[in-house]
């Protein structure tokens, strides 16, 4: 006989294990909040922009072929910016204790589609250090690209600056807490159904019919011992007899 589970049974299972679901959700939210606010180190971001422009010459000011060539060079520039040839000079100028690999992991380079603007973004626990690394990387790249590729078509559009009250880009406590609440709810619901599945005790007449596949002919109800025990009845009778004798 194939077993079927109704929506009513599902809701009953959730209601019965509601304390477990809520407990896991609250614990997950509290743990995420504590870790986000007190354990994780805030990380700040700073960005600078480079313009890969066309070389001025006798050709028209806006030459489509030169613009397309510059767009193709951007991918090459993105690789060169994060190469040891550039980052080693940045490390020396800023007198950084971190290795080139660690410096590379802090820097990300990207450009918008069909755009000649390259953005250098640096993330660091110190907002001022992040800005210094971004600006130094841009200036070193602009200076060294002339010798590396014999071109002079890079200019700095905007330098990285630190705002008065910088806001960290990560961690994001509210987002982390929201994710933890969702994960806690999912874990609680899953654990509730798992416990219900592993619980093989018989609680109702319907469980007997489901397991034995036989109809229930009768059921014995639970009787309270205090109301129906002979000793209690005798005690009550003696109390009533004493009360009647005292009245007479």
Short description:
It contains ten helices and four strands. By secondary structure, the chain is of the alpha+beta class.
Contiguous helical run count: 10
Q: Helix/strand-derived class?
A: alpha+beta
Helix content: 55-70%
Major sheet: order of its strands?
Answer: 2-3-1-4
Order of helices and strands: HHEHHHEEHEHHHH
Quaternary class: single chain
Overall pLDDT level? 81
Question: What is the global morphology?
Answer: elongated
How far do the termini sit from each other? 70 Å
Low-confidence stretches: none
CATH fold naming of the domain at 44-158: Alpha-Beta Plaits
Largest sheet: 4 strands, antiparallel
CATH homologous superfamily descriptor of the domain at 44-158: EIF_2_alpha
Q: What is the radius of gyration computed over CA atoms, rounded to a whole number of angstroms? A: 37 Å
Number of strands: 4
The proportion of residues in beta strands is: 5-15%
Q: Can you name the CATH architecture of the domain at 44-158?
A: 2-Layer Sandwich
Reading off the top of the CATH hierarchy, the class of the domain at 44-158 is best stated as Alpha Beta
Subcellular location: Cell membrane
Transmembrane segments: 20-40, 174-195
GO molecular function: protein tyrosine kinase activity
Membrane topology: Multi-pass membrane protein
What does the model show?
- With 248 residues, this protein is α+β, with helices and mostly antiparallel strands.
- Among the domains are: 8-39 and 173-198, no CATH class; 44-158, 2-Layer Sandwich (Alpha-Beta Plaits), CATH 3.30.70.1130.
- The chain has ten helices and four strands, in the order ααβαααββαβαααα.
- The chain has helices at residues 7-16, 18-39, 64-81, 84-94, 100-106, 127-149, 173-198, 205-212, 225-228, 230-247, and strands at residues 44-52, 107-111, 117-124, 154-158.
- A four-stranded antiparallel β-sheet has the order 2-3-1-4.
- β2 and β3 form a beta hairpin.
- α2 packs antiparallel against α7 and α4 (84-94) packs across α6.
- The longest helix is centred in the last third of the chain and has 26 residues, at 173-198.
- 18% of the residues are buried.
- The mean pLDDT is 81.
């Amino acid at each position: 006989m194939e077993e079927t589970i109704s929506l009513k049974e599902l809701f009953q299972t959730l209601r019965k294990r509601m304390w477990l679901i809520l407990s896991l959700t609250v614990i997950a939210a509290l743990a995420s909040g504590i870790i986000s606010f007190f354990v994780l180190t805030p990380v700040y971001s700073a960005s600078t922009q480079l313009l890969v422009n066309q070389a001025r010459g006798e050709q028209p000011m806006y030459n489509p072929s030169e613009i397309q060539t510059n767009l193709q060079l951007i991918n090459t520039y993105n690789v060169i910016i994060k190469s040891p040839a550039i980052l080693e000079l940045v490390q020396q100028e800023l007198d950084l204790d971190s290795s080139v690999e660690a410096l590379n992991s802090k820097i990300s380079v990207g450009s918008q589609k069909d755009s000649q603007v390259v953005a250098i973004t640096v993330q660091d626990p110190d907002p001022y250090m992040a800005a210094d690394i971004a600006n130094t990387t841009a200036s070193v790249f602009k200076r060294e690209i002339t010798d590396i590729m014999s071109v002079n078509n890079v200019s700095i559009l905007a330098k990285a600056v630190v705002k008065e009250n910088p806001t960290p880009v990560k961690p994001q406590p509210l987002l982390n807490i929201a994710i933890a609440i969702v994960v806690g709810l999912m874990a609680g619901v899953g654990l509730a159904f798992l416990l219900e599945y592993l619980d093989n005790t018989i609680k109702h007449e319907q469980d007997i019919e489901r397991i034995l596949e036989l109809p229930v002919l009768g059921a014995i109800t639970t009787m309270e011992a205090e109301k129906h025990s002979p000793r209690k009845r005798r005690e009550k009778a003696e109390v009533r007899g004493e009360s009647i004798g005292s009245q007479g």
